[in-house]
């Protein structure tokens, strides 16, 4: 997608957030207060975000934590961009009897020719359930990799749920999720913060040098992620 097309999508997300965040009418994810019981697992192709200066991100996240102290903020090591969800997280993942090595070999083909990619993150947005940073592909490599993975997966005949929930074509990264209800005063303060950052450049990230095929939980917690394979880029 072009920068202009991505901006349209992010503006649509922004408009949905405007209907809920300022008044505190958010959807609290019940699993976040009961993570020990969360058995949902799936398979994803991700890029673990690497910051040029991690402290710049931690400083910004500190501002968000001060505004939303009771909500779920992704730890630095968990921040990622989902390239594609290969199998959506489900509670009965084990019953699928997935042979992960087959998925590794199929997706490896998509990386036989891959492009160097640089993302930039500019602006924050939010829905009734989560808040995120808006990313833009500078070189178009992300879109080409997604196309090749989709092609190889469809040709393989392997089970997948790609694009079943929605067609993934943005370059956003989820920063946090609502785990508790909040009042209008707090919602208004957070919305004001989001407005301040709607178009601002966010801390710089390093060029994408690798992507990972992983087994993961819903929140991509590093302690629950099993890296199946890493693929070099460029």
List the helices and strands and how they pair.
Elements: H1 3-18, E1 41-48, H2 54-67, E2 72-73, E3 80-90, H3 100-110, E4 119-126, E5 130-137, H4 141-156, E6 173-177, H5 184-196, E7 210-216, E8 226-232
Antiparallel strand pairs: 1-3, 1-7, 2-6, 4-5, 5-6, 7-8
Helix pairs in contact: 3-4
Structural descriptors:
alpha+beta; globular; 8 strands; 4-stranded antiparallel beta sheet
Q: Beta fraction of the residues?
A: 15-25%
- Order of helices and strands, N to C? HEHEEHEEHEHEE
User: What's the overall average pLDDT, rounded?
Assistant: 95
Strand order of the largest sheet: 3-1-7-8
SS-based class: alpha+beta
How far apart are the first and last residues' alpha carbons, in Å?
20 Å
According to DSSP, the number of beta strands is 8
Shape: globular
Q: Can you tell me the residue ranges where pLDDT is under 50 for at least 5 consecutive residues?
A: none
So how many helices? 5
**Proportion of helical residues:** 25-40%
Largest sheet: 4 strands, antiparallel
């Amino acid at each position: 997608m072009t920068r202009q097309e991505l901006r349209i999508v992010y503006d649509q997300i922004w408009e949905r957030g405007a209907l809920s965040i300022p008044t505190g009418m958010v959807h609290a994810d019940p699993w976040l207060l009961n993570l020990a019981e969360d058995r949902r697992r799936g398979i994803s192709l991700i890029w673990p975000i690497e910051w040029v200066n991690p402290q710049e991100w931690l400083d910004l996240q500190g501002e968000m934590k001060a505004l939303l102290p009771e909500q779920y903020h992704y730890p630095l090591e968990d921040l990622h961009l989902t390239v594609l969800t290969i199998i959506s997280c489900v509670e009965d993942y084990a019953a699928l009897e997935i042979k992960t090595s087959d998925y590794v070999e199929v997706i490896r083909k998509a990386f036989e020719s891959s492009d160097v990619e640089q993302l930039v993150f500019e602006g924050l947005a939010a829905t009734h359930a989560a808040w995120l940073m808006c990313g833009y592909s500078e070189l178009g490599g992300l879109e080409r990799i997604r196309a090749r993975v989709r092609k190889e997966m469809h040709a393989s005949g392997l089970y997948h749920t790609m694009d079943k929930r929605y067609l993934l074509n943005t370059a956003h990264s989820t920063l946090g999720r609502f785990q508790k209800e909040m009042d209008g005063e707090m919602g208004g303060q957070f919305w004001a913060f989001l407005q301040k950052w709607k178009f601002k450049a966010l801390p710089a990230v390093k060029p994408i040098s690798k992507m990972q095929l992983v087994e993961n939980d819903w929140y991509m917690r590093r302690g629950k992620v099993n890296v199946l394979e890493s693929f070099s880029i460029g």
